[in-house]
């Protein structure tokens, strides 16, 4: 049905808009208010409206073209004969099908020649008949609608078109058993369709599977005893209801275009991952399309593990400019498999505006607290929507920064000034990890070595005894210039030496042992207390402000397109 999508934005301001061919699953990720949910609504408008809408996020949706014989076979499959007293107009086709959006039975007429003409040329400016047809295969689920999916439904006439997805599940043994398998693996309970409230179908969670279809679908004493022993699904938690509702509707309702906004709502991370895996694997090898907006790394991991081809589109919006970037599975899988990256939850970075990576956990905690106080004070030096992560040392900082930047995420690295002591392959890590042009590696290496000699002549430890304050005159100017060059590429070196040297006005021990607890105690926790440390001029406050400035640059250096 759908062939490709073109976004309004590209990988960075000024770049061509992103256009990509559709896989069975497309997942939109990004920070809050970046346009993820808006993208789903606009795709729905493109699919169901008679002519292309003007949208903020989606520039164009390209539809697949039908062959005449294929579409005539499709019409034969969903067309029905008129009932007694029902008039079918000349050249019209009477459509009868389950409507996935509200699980009602759709029955209406369409002008057959016009519908066929639209299907053979679906990308023209006006496709009024085709939009009506596509609406029969389009389902959008949000937080409210997914909980109502498991409500009791009329059974209808089981010899005719199923009036809803529960009736479809009741008469379709294969779909019912597939849903039952998924629910059992998730909760250890067997989902059954209960017909004993005559005229209504309802879902239950049984401790055992029915012995056969007759026990589940009958009205006799055996069936009544079986169902009475199983709790109603409506009495379960919202998480269970949401999970079962989405799985049931996707499998029994058979929508061809499904749009789900934040499917992880109500779900524990483990359950969100399972949902992602199951609904993705259900689409593997099909021509159906699933579009998801998520803020859950667990759900995303489940989708990647589901076995179907998947597109991951990261969108951002800073209030002025938008970006859209296609993330390949090949680049995401290392983030899921690498023990270092997995242990610190690096996949969560997809949902933040920026990332700051530090050498150790104490560094991370300190810089994160500084940023929080800047944001609380509405200080422009604060970094909105920033995730702080810690590496194991200054070398592994760049093992985290590099893959994030490859995904288009502005990830800055903070290292102590003794990084200048490192030459050879160790020095090459920040150069490569921050995507400094290779032609500049040599000249920066020469400057680094010259500055190392200047520090050595002082006879003092650059990290412990003041950083660039140990230098004077031209040597200090040269060091400032050198650090500024590195900062252009998101490599931020602590000019005062080490993290413990910040907040110089605070009188505490600067040794590593117990430093973090001591400095936090001095900084205070109650903003109403006069001794509470608030943002000031210079010092670490400006240092974080420099990182914020780099993050906000529309065309920042060090992040590849």
Automatic annotation (TrEMBL):
Gene3D superfamilies: P-loop containing nucleotide triphosphate hydrolases. Transmembrane segments: none annotated. Residues 172-299 form the ATPase AAA-type core domain. GO terms for molecular function: ATP binding; ATP hydrolysis activity. It comes from the Bacteria. Pfam families: AAA_21. This is ATPase AAA-type core domain-containing protein.
């Amino acid at each position: 049905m759908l062939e490709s999508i073109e976004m309004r934005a590209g990988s960075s301001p000024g770049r061509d808009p992103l256009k990509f061919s559709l896989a069975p699953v497309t997942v939109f990720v990004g920070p809050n208010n970046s346009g993820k949910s808006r993208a789903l609504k606009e795709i729905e408008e493109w699919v169901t409206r008679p002519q292309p809408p003007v949208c903020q996020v989606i520039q164009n949706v390209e539809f697949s073209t039908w062959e005449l014989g294929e579409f005539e076979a499709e019409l034969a499959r969903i067309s029905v004969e008129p009932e007694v007293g029902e008039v079918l107009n000349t050249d019209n086709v009477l459509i009868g099908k389950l409507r996935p959006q509200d699980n009602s039975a759709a029955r209406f007429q369409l002008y057959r020649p016009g519908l066929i003409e639209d299907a053979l040329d679906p990308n023209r400016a006006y496709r009024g008949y085709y939009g009506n047809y596509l609406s029969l295969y389009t389902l959008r689920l949000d937080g409210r609608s997914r909980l109502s999916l498991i409500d009791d439904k009329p059974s209808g006439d089981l010899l005719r078109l199923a009036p809803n997805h529960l009736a479809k599940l009741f008469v379709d043994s294969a779909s019912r058993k597939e849903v039952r398998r998924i629910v059992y693996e998730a909760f250890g309970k067997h989902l059954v369709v209960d017909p004993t409230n005559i005229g209504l179908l309802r879902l239950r969670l049984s401790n055992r599977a029915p012995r056969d279809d007759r026990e589940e679908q009958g009205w006799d004493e055996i069936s009544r005893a079986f169902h009475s022993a199983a709790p109603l699904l409506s009495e379960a938690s919202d998480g269970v209801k949401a999970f079962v509702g989405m799985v049931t509707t996707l499998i029994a309702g058979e929508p061809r275009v499904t749009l789900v906004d934040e499917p992880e709502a109500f779900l524990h991370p483990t359950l969100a991952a399972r949902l992602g895996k199951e609904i993705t694997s259900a689409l593997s090898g099909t021509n159906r399309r699933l579009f998801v907006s998520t803020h859950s790394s667990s759900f995303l991991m489940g989708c990647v593990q589901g076995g179907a081809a998947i597109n991951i589109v990261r969108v951002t919006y800073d209030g002025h400019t938008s970006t859209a970037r296609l993330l390949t599975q090949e680049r995401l899988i290392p983030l899921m498999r690498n023990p270092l990256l997995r242990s610190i939850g690096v996949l969560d970075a997809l949902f933040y505006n920026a990332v700051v990576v530090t050498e150790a956990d104490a560094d991370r905690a300190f810089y994160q607290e500084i940023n929080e106080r800047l944001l609380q004070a509405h200080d422009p030096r604060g970094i909105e929507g920033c995730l702080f992560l810690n590496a194991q040392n200054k070398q592994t900082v760049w093992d985290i920064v590099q893959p994030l930047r490859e995904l288009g995420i502005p990830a800055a690295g903070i290292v102590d000034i003794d990084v200048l002591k490192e030459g050879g392959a160790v020095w090459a890590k920040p150069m490569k990890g921050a995507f400094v042009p290779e032609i500049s590696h040599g000249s920066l290496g020469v400057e680094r070595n010259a500055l190392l000699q200047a520090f050595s002549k002082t006879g003092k430890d650059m990290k412990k005894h003041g950083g660039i304050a140990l230098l004077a005159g031209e040597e200090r100017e040269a060091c400032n210039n050198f650090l500024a060059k590195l900062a252009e590429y998101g490599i931020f070196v602590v000019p005062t030496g080490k993290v413990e040297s910040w907040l110089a006005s605070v009188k505490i021990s600067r040794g590593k042992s117990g430093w973090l607890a001591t400095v936090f105690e001095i900084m205070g926790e109650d903003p109403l207390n006069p001794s509470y440390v608030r943002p000031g001029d210079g010092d670490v406050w400006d240092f974080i402000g420099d990182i914020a400035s780099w993050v906000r640059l529309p065309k920042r250096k060090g992040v590849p397109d």
